[in-house]
Design a protein that fits this description.
- The structure is a homodimer.
- Chain A is α/β, with parallel strands linked by helices.
- Chain A has two domains: about 120 residues, Isopropylmalate Dehydrogenase (3-Layer(aba) Sandwich); about 180 residues, Isopropylmalate Dehydrogenase (3-Layer(aba) Sandwich).
- Chain A contains 13 helices and eleven strands.
- Chain A has an eleven-stranded mixed sheet.
- The longest helix of chain A is centred in the middle third of the chain and has 19 residues.
- At the A-B interface, helix 10 and helix 11 of A face helix 10 and helix 11 of B.
Chain lengths: ~350, ~350
């Protein structure tokens, strides 16, 4: 457990390793703005920043407090759609790699990147290693696999399929977790069960809910609705007595506090959340008076950039992904998310709970 | 082509058969309100209304102009998740069946129902029959199937897979079509190609676009992003020279006028559009002053109930589905959608264009 530290240290400082190279239109200025904003929002934040000479200069010029960050040169950045094989082979000095290595060594409590989803998941699995289920859930998974005729599944030491989870605002100071948001474009029902186990433990820690309500995203709430994936996932999840399964949930109920943990495959989850963001953006981007009224109309808790920062659950360390297209406010929110998750020792606590298998 | 009529008659009157029994909480009063609202919005509207004695009484009590509708008693309604086999066997007198038969016989130009998606698709396919591709597209489909190693596909006379399409507001008086929105919970890449062909012809007629821009909904715009389904669908669609394929589109760009036709499987499409609606609802449902400001903030063209009314493309007749949970305003909009589609002789014109296969 590389990132374990004394809890007293945690209270003092959260150290986040920042990949300062990723993102769609990432100029160094917007990274600097995000760093300043995040430092203001989270006083215990300390950063190890990886990036170009330009970024280093801009940080100094902007007068960012040098006692609150350390800069390390890492110019190499990884193209969004680089193949897993090439990612592992050709980018040993990339900022993303360096930031992940900081988490593995324990130097940083968490890392954050706006780089490509594929490269980030590949490298995080490789560098940090994957978490595993406890013995009861391995047995449960094998039992349901065999009942469903997926005889070929073997426990692989119970290794889980990592997934991206995000906090979804569902009311004033209330959040749900939704996953997977795109770590896996193709998922099996057993993968969705992994997501439910991960989400369940994560909700206990980060939402402070004793018995999280777990729902599966579907096209309707009736049992017969949907495709084979959700029907099989229901078998896995509903029959695990340690999970409080509350049924199928439709897209229009995501923001309505019907569930604490919303399970879906990475394709659907990504498209659905982006569609929701697209509408929220329309309300806030109409300009002039419209924009003003949009701010007055919005429920206070529904801030578009509050979505930003999905956490990769299921690896041995804290990895946060910011939208490639996020503005500096949104990137700052994701940095703070990384610091908060570190503060809760999320990854270590999750593995402990997964193993204990209650 | 049962619903073909002289275009002069069309200009005079659109006759819509209304299944007055479906919907989540459908009380007869809300159907009556929807009928009055729709008649006010569309002066050429004439309705054949199927429903209960109660509905008949309420229509009379409300003083709805009896010259603009005919009432027929049909008490039987079909449960949302009834199996296809049972739907075909056990509900010969259901309002949904009667309304579809009106379209088949040519008595009505289109029909509308708030009933279950599954029953409606099953019955529409059975009662109206399925449309088919022209010879060029059948050959194209066979070629790509064979290239992809889906050797087992046979043309079945080129019958298409019907899908639900809706008009998505993308700007002032501008719309895109998105499909499938839930007719098929599981889709093959060849099905997505059918949707693209149907959407292309529908956009030419209903959006009046000469060469519609066709996009595939995906988790990213890069070629490597997404699952096998979208990659294979791209092969089918991009290589058909009669379609103007413009690439992958992400969920947050649905409302941004990047494409005229947005193709997705019925599971993803349903969840994504409902998620978008969920956010729009939050802005308009916060009550009191918030609600007032929400109306001022909303771009005029983005009306939540403007989404309502998806058209089932690919059957020989006009079938419109209203949300089960739609309020009376939204139901009225869907009725008007049914009348408009009838006015454009949408189904007949689409089959003519599909056959001509340009």
């Amino acid at each position: 457990m590389a990132i374990a530290k004394d809890s007293e240290n945690k209270a003092e400082r959260s150290c986040v390793a920042l990949d300062g190279t990723g993102g769609d239109h990432r100029d160094t200025r917007s990274v600097v703005d995000a760093v300043r904003f995040a430092m203001a929002m989270y006083p215990q934040l300390y950063l190890i920043i990886f990036g170009s000479n330009q970024l280093q200069d801009d940080l100094l010029k902007a007068g960012v407090d040098t006692k609150r960050y350390e800069f390390r040169l890492a110019q190499q950045s990884i193209p969004q759609d680089e193949s897993p094989r090439s990612v592992l082979k050709n980018f040993p000095h990339a900022a993303m790699v360096k930031a992940l290595e900081c988490v593995r060594s324990g130097e940083a409590d968490s890392m954050i990147s706006s780089g490509g989803t594929g490269p980030l998941v590949t490298l995080a699995r490789h560098i940090l290693g994957v978490q595993h289920l406890g013995p009861k859930r391995i047995a449960h998974k094998e039992k349901i696999c065999s009942e469903l005729g997926h005889g070929s599944w073997s426990a692989h030491g119970g290794k889980v399929r990592p997934c991206f989870a995000a906090r979804i605002p569902v009311g004033p100071n209330r959040f749900a977790l939704m996953m997977d948001l795109g770590a896996n474009a193709t998922c099996s029902a057993a993968d969705l069960y992994d997501f439910a186990c991960l989400g369940n433990e994560c909700a206990k820690i980060s939402l402070e809910v004793d018995s999280p309500r777990v729902a599966i995203l579907n096209v309707g709430t009736e049992l017969g609705k949907g495709n084979a994936l959700v029907h099989e996932a229901r078998e896995f999840i509903e029959q695990d007595r340690s999970l409080q399964y509350v049924g199928f949930i439709e897209g229009n109920r995501i923001f309505r506090d019907d569930a604490d943990v919303i399970i879906t495959d990475g394709f659907t989850g990504n498209v659905a959340l982006k569609a929701a963001e697209g509408v929220a953006d329309l309300y806030s981007s109409s300009g002039g008076m419209k924009k003003f009224f949009g701010k007055l109309a919005r429920p206070e808790w529904l801030l578009p950039w509050q979505y930003n920062g999905s956490v990769l659950l299921g690896v041995n360390g804290l990895v946060v992904k910011s939208h490639a297209s996020a503005g500096h406010e949104a990137l700052a929110v994701a940095v703070v998310e990384a610091a908060r998750a570190a503060h809760a020792s999320l990854a270590v606590n999750m593995q402990r709970r997964l193993e204990s298998d209650k």
